[in-house]
Design goal:
Blueprint: E1 2-7, H1 11-16, E2 22-31, H2 34-45, E3 58-60, H3 88-93, E4 98-101, H4 107-116, E5 119-122, H5 128-132, E6 135-142, E7 151-165, H6 172-181
Parallel strand pairs: 1-2, 2-3, 3-4, 4-5
Antiparallel strand pairs: 2-7, 5-7, 6-7
Length: about 180
Amino acid sequence: MDRYIQAPISKDDAASLRAGDYVYLTGTIYTARDAAHKRMQETLEKGEDLPVSMDRNIIYYMGPSPAREGRPIGSAGPTTASRMDKYAPNLLDLGLGAMIGKGKRSQAVIDAIVRNGSVYFAAIGGAGALLSKCILSSEVIAYDDLGTEAIRKLEVKNFPVVVVIDSTGCNLYETSAAAYAK
């Protein structure tokens, strides 16, 4: 089913999504990769506030290439999500509404998705140039010294993703593999 969702994602929208749904996101999402996640974890361990609220926000695991003239961002394809698995449960427990990446997630992340009524979306790897066309603006808001791994605030319109793990824990990678095996 095709769904059009506003970002940040509401609890009701997250609860209504099912693994396999095609979703088009419009609104504000944030980027963060390995180095930014590590720095956020260190910030939390010091008892300090994160540079962006996790409350129902969406983090896209992506580090863009340089923008061409006249564009807000370069190629913007997803990064392998499992590299953030050691950090994701804590961020989900702080209210993170959804994550966008590619590839499988650990059981600890799946448990945290269910516990918090969140969602894991996949973006199509290798389609970064096409995905960048859905990004209206890009602004570094934290950790500028990390270069492409800085946290960016993106304004997106009809950004295409697929629900891989829904708020009930249904995992498209597993259900699709089982259906194919039949």
